[in-house]
Amino acid sequence: MSTDFAFDDELLADLVETPGVPGYEDKIRARVRAELDGHVDRLRSDSMGNLLGTIEGSDPAYEVVVATHIDEIGFMVKHVDDDGFLELDALGGWDPRILRAQRVTVHTETGDCPGVIGAVPPHTLTDEQKKAERAVGDARVDLGLDAETVAERVSVGDLVTMDGRTERVGEFVTGKSLDNRVSVLAAIEAARRIDDPDATIHFAATTQEEVGLRGASALGVDLDPDLVYNLDTTVANDVPGFEAGEQVTRLGEGAAIKLKDSSVVTNHKLNRRLRGVAEDRGINHQLEVLPAGGTDTGGLQRAGGARPAGAISIPTRYLHTPTESVHGGDLDAAIELLVAALRTEDGTHDYTL
């Protein structure tokens, strides 16, 4: 990929292509740990798999959490049939219409196996079959192996992820799990760029967001921050078929400052400060009102008690598909805004309502 944007695009590709479905984030957590090591003062994880990297501030009494989930949507094998086809159970929100004719990777105890979710040729289907509603449970993974070999290699509980490379398409980056690996990259970049902050900053790589904000909700047991920032992707329906009011955000117009989603109404004093920081520094930004879909912001706002919470979102087309797309300039803007906000968090801003 080209390097005309400020972020580390090679690292982004590596993060996107490292597997980590909800509850099984081991590989991506290890990758993030390796990147944070040397840029934070402390690294630790908890029994939910959340990874915390802390930069000690000059005012240790004032603490800020920057959270970003590391899990991706995927599947778990729930049955291997007598013919060697795999039946799946979803981990996260899938639209079953997009599953046909996709390549996947099955992660087994003895190694990864490539597979496909096939599609019956349309000219062999009846009119009734063509109109039938699809469900995730209808998908079958074909490993191209005989049933006996499949039974030896694959077990119930093995994980399945989409198989896809990270590519540049014009000014966009496309990939299978930009949700939420673009935000993971943003947090890593911030940790790299911030030295000697006033506030103590905890970079939290959270787990199981795609199945109910579970990792973030558990953070409040171990942390009692004064302020929370969440980083995630958001909807950009700026494509044919949507009215202007339905688009939520638009690619190429900058980082999105979240006002609400279905899990949270963010702290409006924090929102105004984020807008002020962006305007003062000429950082492209837009406002996000997301009518459906929740994020870790909601879990963090209430984890262990009430706390001011805000979010910086990265506009993304085609969310929860293998071709998620973000504009490189929006990712740069999100990183710049996060870094600028953290550098100016010194405990003097009043977020009480």
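That was protein one. Protein two is written in the same sequence-then-structure order:
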Amino acid sequence: MVRLKGEAFFEVKKEQRPFLVESGSTKIRVLGTSFNVRQKADEPLYVALVTGKVRVDAVNGDQVTLNPDEMLVMEKGGKFSKTGFDTMDVIGWKDNYLVFKSAKFSEVREKLELWYGVQIDVKGRIDPKWTYSGVYKDEMLENVLRGICVTSGMTYQIDKKQITITNPK
């Protein structure tokens, strides 16, 4: 039994005994598989199955079985949906890929702050329709910021762990 807050990728060998992952009030039952689980504060639970099979037991008694390339998205109240997923987008992080896929500015900011351990301040207004797509492997923060800002017409300044992004528009 593993209790999880946050995100983790599991590769579990097939054994006689079940392997359980508990995230919040949801249990994921595993027997020989690889999958990603993410549940952060005030977000839905995401379970993305790469290989094998898992069964998700919700607190309300619902049970959902996932097959490879399926992802379960479960809201706090127990409402859920199954979808496909982009493997690089969901589990690229474990191989040091920083992936943005039509990400809103708030998502880019949050991911950069968590990935690099920095604080980002913004000067100017960011268009609510602004999105960014890009993939970086083992890249320095300055190169990622350069890519984001050059394509968006913004500038950045780095002062230790404090980043300022300025949108002159």
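The chain is about 15% helix and 45% strand. Keep this in mind for the problem set.
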